[in-house]
Amino acid sequence: MDLNLEYAAHQHALMQAEAAGTSVARQDHLLRADRIARRITLFQDRLGAAAACAWSTLHLAASGHA
């Protein structure tokens, strides 16, 4: 997995969500960002990467689940 590409895709999805013209489009982009974040988290967890904890916490806080 290329983390730079995944982080960029995540950021792009968030920017698209903010610029979305409808609530449905916004939700679609946020769901895409969530799927990307989950892939990143799983990848980092499998590697035992220290960043995985920070990314998971950040992702949960952003989604309102923290």
What does this structure look like?
- Helix content is 83%, strand content 0%.
- With 66 residues, the protein is mainly α.
- The protein has one domain (3-63).
- α2 packs antiparallel against α3 (51-63).
- The longest helix has 25 residues, at 23-47.
- The relative contact order is 0.13.
- The model has no long low-confidence stretch (mean pLDDT 85).
Tags for this model:
single chain, 66 residues, mainly alpha, 3 helices, 0% strand, elongated
Please report the number of helical segments.
3
- Structural domains: how many: 1
Structural class: mainly alpha
Query: In whole angstroms, how far apart are the ends?
Result: 27 Å
Portion in beta strands: under 5%
Uncertain runs are none
List the secondary-structure elements in sequence, H or E: HHH
On the 0 to 100 scale, the average pLDDT is 85
Principal-axis shape equals elongated
Helicity, in percent?
over 70%
Annotation, overall tally of beta strands: 0
The value of Rg in angstroms is 12 Å
Largest sheet: none
Which SSEs are present, and which pair or pack?
Elements: H1 3-19, H2 23-47, H3 51-63
Helix pairs in contact: 1-2, 2-3
Write a short abstract of this structure:
The chain is mostly helical and 66 residues long. It is built from three helices and no strands. It has helices spanning 3-19, 23-47, 51-63.
